[in-house]
Amino acid sequence: MKRFGTSMRDSGLAMFTTALLTALFITSATFLPFLIQGAVAHPETRPAPQAYVVPPTDGQYPDPERCLGNCSWIHDPAIWYENGTYWRFSTSGNIAIATAPSIGGPWRYQGALLHNGTSIFVTDTQDIWAPSISKRGDVYYCHYSVSAMGFQNSSIGVATSLSLFPGTWQDHGNVGLPLSEKYNLIDPYVFQETPNSPIYFTFGSFWDDIFQIELFPHDDMIAFGNWAQQNSRINNVIRNSTADATVVEGAIMWKEAEFYYVFYSVGWCCNTPVKGLAAEGDVYHVVVCRSEAPTGPFYDKDGKDCLHDSGGTTILASHGDIYAPGGQGVMVHPEDGRTVMYYHYVRQSVGYEADQFFFGYNYLGWQDGWPVVVVA
Question: Which residues pair with 97 in a beta bridge?
Answer without folding.
Answer: 89, 111
